[in-house]
Amino acid sequence: MEKYSGFNLLKHALTGHRRWPRSWRSPEPKPRYDVVIIGGGGHGLATAYYLAKEQGITNVAVLEKGWLGGGNTGRNTAVSRSNYFYPESTRFFEHSLKRFETMGRDLNYNIMFSQVGLLNLAFSRHELEIFRRWATAIQVQGVDCQVMSRDEIAAAVPLLNMSPHARYRVYGGFMQRRGGISRHDAVAWAYARAADNLGVDIIQNCEVTGLEVGDGRIRGVKTSRGAIRTDKVGMAVAGHSTAVAAMAGIKLPIVSQCLQAMVSEPVKPCFDHVVMSPMVHCYVSQSDRGELVIGGGADTHPSYGQRGNLPTTEAVLNAVVEMYPTFSRLKLMRQWGGIVDIAPDSSPIVSKTPVTGFYISTGWGTGGYKAIPAGGETLAHTIAHDRPHPLVEPFSLDRFAQGRLVDEGAAAGVAH
Amino acid sequence: MKRTAQRLPHARVDPGKTLRFRFDGRTYEGVAGDSLASALLANGVGVVGRSFKLHRPRGVFGCGKEEANALVQLESGGYSEPNARATLVPLYEGLEARGQNAWPNVRSDVFGALGVFKRLLPASFYYKTFMWPNWQRWEGLVRRLAGLGIAPTSADPQKYLKQNVHADVVVVGAGRSGLEAALATSRDPACRVLLIDEQEEPGGGLLASPAAADRSWLEEALREVAARDNITLLCRTTVNGYYDNNVLAALERLSNHHGPAAGGAVRERFWRIFAGRVVLATGAIERPLVFPNNDRPGIMLASAVREYCHRYGLTLGERIVFYTNNDSAWRTALELVDAGVPVVAIIDLRPAVESELRQRAREAGIALHLGTVVTDTRGRSGLRRLVLHRLAGPGDALEAPAGTLDCDVLAMSGGWTPTVHLYSQSGGLLAYRDSDACFVPERAHQAVTAVGRANGEFAAPLNLQPQWLTPGVSAEHQWVDFQYDVTASDIQLAARENFVSVEHVKRYTTNGMSVDQGKTSNVNGLGILALATGRPIPEVGTTRFRPPYHPTSLGAYAGIELGALYTPFQQLPAHAAHVAAGALFEDYGAWQRPACYPRPGEEEEAAMAREARAVRSAVGLLDYSPLGKLEVRGPDAREFLNRMYLNNIRTLEVGAARYGLMLNEAGIVIDDGVVVCLARDHFLLHTTSGGATTIHQHLEEWLQCEWTDLEVIVGNATTQWATLMLSGPKARAVLAQLDGDIDVSREAFGHMQYREGRLLGQPCRILRASFTGEVSFEISVPANCGLSLWEALMQAGEPHGIVPFGIETLMLLRTEKGYPHVGADTDGNTMPQDLGWGGAVANKPDDFVGRRSLSQPVGSDPGRFQFTGLELLEADARTVSGAHILTADGESTAGYVTSAFHSPNLNRTVALGIVADARDRQGEEVTVFYAGQRQRARLIKPGVYDPAGEALNG
Ligand SMILES: Cc1cc2nc3c(=O)[nH]c(=O)nc-3n(C[C@H](O)[C@H](O)[C@H](O)COP(=O)(O)OP(=O)(O)OC[C@H]3O[C@@H](n4cnc5c(N)ncnc54)[C@H](O)[C@@H]3O)c2cc1C
């Protein structure tokens, strides 16, 4: 793998960049792998990378039905944070955030992680009480969290609507300074390049159409490019989790819904943080290119249509203009949707399953981008040792049967 | 670029009406009918913008929404709009615009020097560097250089409307095909046709046609359209989105053509269109050719040169050269010559061109360079000269230099791209048509058809020979996406690095991601990728088009629903009385309710203390109208409620009330309230105030999805009744004074009883329940009688010292009493046993929602957070809801303070919480943590005020 650096960029400039090597190969599928990962999103690619890097398993294939990173990994708003409510969640996401902080150097790929700080706003007395509880939870867990007053918020977000005519009054909020945004494509590509370099076969345009199970064990996968034998399959297919798990006869408590995101035309820097609020429901940040990146709630009905419909677009942008009245004359440039996999408690599932050798990573819902490093690492560990990684023990599939939910949805409201 | 002294005749502008405008600080004149772009061109302004990445000087290149270069900052202050397309801005008197992304201005931008470093900045260079020490060190610099216009900093003075419309047929595009479609479908008088066009006037491409036949056809067609009652014509309206169920979104520009002179008028109208059938007559967009330095000001689309000539009457240059790979540009060139425009040469990369065209061109005095390509362009701020080479064969290497050619305008045509964006958004499939090198609609997914050029039906054959980039010369300066500075070499680099899916290439190079969303760059990019990867174009595929088709103001999506109209709020029936009493209003769900009633100069806490003391010592009145009131009725109502509530509803007698807990399937407490039995088959559910709607939905879900056999109806009567809570030791005395037929004496009307009757001549419902711990009457009258009841009670209570009290005071009172408030003193894990209701669960013989989950292991896990009272050990200590209780080691959370107030009646802090194993740990000391401070507290039984409950029976 040729190293990426300013020096090498200069060197290649001399030859007109005509000598850069491929970022990854495009191998033909082999008849047998030690581990097959379904889904070439961030989670699948990271899992393959950590299998090779940390578990020493390199005979691995990642099967992607389209192009790598083309699912939610390439469609999200790229927010990373670790200010979750429950300790189980915070431990996991803080581990992931730390990985984000060093990912550029670890994978030798500038994922442009910019820790602009993530501000949550409360719009009522009751919300403020919940926020106090939430902020204290984060502090108790030793994660950075700064409670901010209305005035401090006004100074940090000058374009925020503080007028007496605003429908809701800003009561206060809290900020995680280490939270931020990065380039989602870069994260997928960085893992793909690094995994490929360690010998992982990334096979694009290869859809898994069936799972072979015999005597309660995984035997292989059927794909649009032929059958592949393997003893271990890791599934990381986000919105398609229920469909793929059903191929192994497993019914998952997952609902698939479309979540939209959108960007404005690019403008010069005017918005310094990621600002979100559960009540006036939208969140906004500004990308390095200058686009305002906007997200909100999911479309209201279950769907596999990666589009998103008008009422939700309107609702999200309505909230944006109510919160930032001067954005009114900016123009929406592009809107899109991804199918998110939502568990009843809005927490992920990284787990073994009743089928031996079949491991799943799902339930990432509206907030699994930030989890890509830790999700990959823990799924790789779980696959390699057939035992959950300690960080994901609370996130096993059987928690639903036992009622041991990690109800972030109920605790905090938003989860991006 | 040449200044035009006089407009050509037949142009659709009014040369007699001059309009003054300013661009980059200089004053110019245009004429009525101009666009900002045509006016700038008329004044010979060559450089109007700078590119995104390299700050290359750029001139107007198109004439419509495909424009990638002429992006300007329009107006200032609240009227400011960044990234306005000069081609789409109709000129008006006093218009002010500035070039963007440049300093000090677009003519001489110091950042233009970046172009020198182009080599160092190939596609996605940033992913390969800026890693040490970390990205953030570099980011500030990069961020400042990126971005285009400047976001306004003052509020938008104008408004936006939204409107819904239903139509049997929606025709998008009022060019020839669209007009024909509208006239044909509207022949059936019952068919409502909506005809929409994005330009300032209908006519589409016909507006740029000099042919008399076209002009008269258009006039005739428009007369006919006007005469048909069933056609609605919307101009200045761009259809932006095509969604599921044939829903379209469109934006109508109502007053943009007046600029700031429109004042606070409605600027734009957002149309939600519900279409039976859609006809897309959206035309086609010309493609640029890709050759070295093809981004120099003066190089334009042939169709744009044509439009500026015929529609705006501009000659543009003194030596205009055409460069093409298809026949359409020849016809344009000939038309221009006819109009008196100096076309000096046609360069065509095809070795052979139809003899008739050649013949006519020669006759027109045009020099012909066939089988020739442009391999470079020269000029400082504008185009001066072209460097030509002969091609060895189609798409092949260069053969021999073919000299240079002086010119000041180059009109290029690389073919046509049907405008299939909406078709693609609708889910329709596209197919690549080799002969015209373009994507055309193939299979519709909704009720939509494409017609005319949008469907790839060109008036005359193009005889096109694709050339995706110029062979034999470096690809490094061959621009593909003018806006984001993507060159052919960037796409080749992507392919080299194995980014071979179109989506990868788009993201890796940013080709097509700029404000024009690839309208002129997508297909060229595909072609280059196909060459680089040795695949045919259909195999490379195309990216999916996403809304909006053309960027749309965020304000338009918001409409008028801002400020007070952002979300509807509900006012209490006695709102006027609360205002008069000086209430401090806050949002509680949708309701605006008095938190308390501070007197002038009185702090909030003091007001609450005063109100709370009055309730405990005399009497208070609270507008409790948001209290949920669900009526449940039917032969199976009792059975249904018995399944929904943890509590036994079977034994509830008529006229009696019972406290109840409702769980979800996971056994989590989601609501508490009082169930009143009005008749054997008729119940009234008082849910928590915030819960009325969700609990209603919860009930309906079980009825409609699970127990369809039960005969029950549920109605939400919350807003039909005003409910006032009269509470305090004098409550009974006050109520007794009012004219009514219900005996409210202690003997006749006990706690948790319910009566119906008349009060002040109105029907009324009275429940004796208590959330304050004092004798309370929850009196409901028809909503419109709420105010008069409030006034009557206040008057009757005056001698007893009655005060109005707010919801926060109620919270204080119930915290003193230790009554839990579901949602505040419970969380997403609270089960009934955590509230002390484990016994009730065990005793209930029947099944109920959530019961199964309660018996799971989690229900008896150690460390469950349980409801408890909290006593702070230090005198005068305070705490807040949101503080945490720590584990013994002080390292982690073992619970929260969920309610905390300063009690005026006990003169100390009263607090409730949920704490790990609290029910078994009563009396133990714990640490409370908030904002870095630790305090000691003791777990105590909730309810420190009047623990024996004597007040209730007083
Ligand atoms: C609009 C939007 C905004 C978001 N914003 C954020 C955010 O700000 N922060 C955050 O942390 N998270 C965010 N998320 C969530 C986040 O994007 C996802 O949780 C995360 O990307 C999931 O990664 P993944 O690898 O599991 O799934 P994906 O990236 O979706 O990858 C799954 C892959 O599986 C492939 N696949 C499916 N079925 C098959 C099959 N049968 N055979 C082979 N391959 C198959 C798919 O093609 C896909 O490429 C957002 C999501 C969306 C949609």
TrEMBL record, chain A:
Q: Where is the Rhodanese domain?
A: 35-79
GO MF annotations in UniProt: nucleotide binding; sarcosine oxidase activity
* Assigned GO CC terms: cytoplasm
InterPro entries in the cross-refs:
FAD-dep_OxRdtase (IPR006076), FAD/NAD-bd_sf (IPR036188), Rhodanese-like_dom (IPR001763), SoxB (IPR006278)
Q: Which SUPFAM superfamilies match?
A: FAD-linked reductases, C-terminal domain (SSF54373), FAD/NAD(P)-binding domain (SSF51905)
Instruction: Give one GO biological process term.
Output: tetrahydrofolate metabolic process
- Main localization of the protein described in the UniProt heading: cytoplasm
Q: What class of enzyme is it?
A: oxidoreductase
Which keywords belong to this entry?
Cytoplasm, FAD, Flavoprotein, FMN, Nucleotide-binding, Oxidoreductase
Among PANTHER family, the record links this protein to:
FAD-DEPENDENT OXIDOREDUCTASE DOMAIN-CONTAINING PROTEIN 1, SARCOSINE DEHYDROGENASE-RELATED
Name of the protein in its database record: Sarcosine oxidase subunit beta
Organism encoding this protein = Parahaliea mediterranea
TrEMBL record, chain B:
Q: Which residues form the SoxA A3 domain?
A: 476-559
What InterPro entries does the record tag this protein with? Answer: 2Fe-2S-bd_N, FAD/NAD-bd_sf, FAD/NAD-binding_dom, GcvT/YgfZ/DmdA, GcvT/YgfZ_C, GcvT_C, GCVT_N, SoxA_A3
UniProt GO MF annotations:
oxidoreductase activity; transaminase activity
Location of the GCVT N-terminal domain:
575-842
Annotated Aminomethyltransferase C-terminal domain residues: 867-946
Show the SUPFAM superfamilies listed in the entry.
Answer: Aminomethyltransferase beta-barrel domain (SSF101790), FAD/NAD(P)-binding domain (SSF51905), Folate-binding domain (SSF103025)
Q: What residue stretches are annotated with the FAD/NAD(P)-binding domain?
A: 168-428
- Give a yes or no for keyword Transferase in this entry: yes
Annotated Pfam families: Fer2_4, GCV_T, GCV_T_C, Pyr_redox_2, SO_alpha_A3
Which UniProt keywords are listed? Aminotransferase, Oxidoreductase, Transferase
The UniProt similarity line reads: Belongs to the GcvT family.
Q: What is this protein called?
A: (2Fe-2S)-binding protein
Native species: Parahaliea mediterranea
